[in-house]
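In the design runs reported in the main text, the only information available to the sequence generator was the tokenized backbone. The following block is the verbatim input for one such run; it is reproduced so that readers can re-run the procedure and compare outputs position by position.
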């Protein structure tokens, strides 16, 4: 039962990070390429982050009903900020000299983006994915409030039954999960930064 709950939590985190990246990366690129849309994209991603996680999940639940889909969509919306902003900042911070050299080589905007700019910006983009992952591990604890399961159910049960062992188990597992993800992704991030130098 315990391993099933941990795997359920990991599943929610994995899906949310996958979709956050799939949505956030194109939005960050759009913010970089299309100036008129930049302010709106960055502002909306910031606003979503300011909504309390439980309230955001509750609003999604009112539309979709309780369940894992509600949790994943809520987590995706909550995790967009680091992915969108880091994608935009990574692309924006590339030296203008490199961009000019690429233009001088006759590369189209699309070619420059995919062959030069995104590979150079990827360490910063990956940092955003890392932040989104660690954030999702903690925020997914609220999944149980909207019928999504995960480790939040263990902590909730511990609170209801005043069982300190359950509360500590859920908390320590979440902390270990977040630390392990953070350390593993920090190593990858370090390798990516080294390779782009």
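Verbatim output:
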């Amino acid at each position: 039962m315990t391993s099933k709950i941990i795997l359920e939590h990991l599943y929610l985190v994995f899906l949310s990070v996958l979709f956050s990246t799939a949505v956030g990366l194109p939005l960050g690129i759009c913010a970089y390429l299309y100036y008129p849309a930049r302010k709106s994209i960055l502002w909306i991603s910031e606003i979503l982050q300011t909504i309390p996680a439980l309230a955001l999940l509750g609003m999604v639940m009112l539309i979709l009903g309780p369940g894992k889909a509600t949790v994943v969509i809520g987590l995706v919306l909550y995790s967009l900020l680091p992915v969108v902003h880091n994608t935009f900042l990574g692309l924006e911070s590339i030296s203008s000299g490199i961009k000019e050299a690429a233009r001088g080589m006759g590369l189209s905007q699309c070619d420059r983006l995919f062959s030069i700019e995104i590979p150079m910006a990827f360490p910063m983009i990956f940092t955003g994915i890392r932040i989104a992952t660690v954030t999702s591990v903690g925020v997914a604890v609220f999944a149980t409030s909207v019928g999504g399961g995960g480790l939040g159910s263990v902590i909730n049960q511990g609170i209801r039954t005043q069982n300190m062992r359950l509360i500590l188990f859920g908390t320590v597992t979440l902390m270990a999960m977040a630390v392990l993800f953070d350390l593993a992704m920090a190593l990858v991030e370090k390798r990516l930064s080294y390779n782009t130098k």
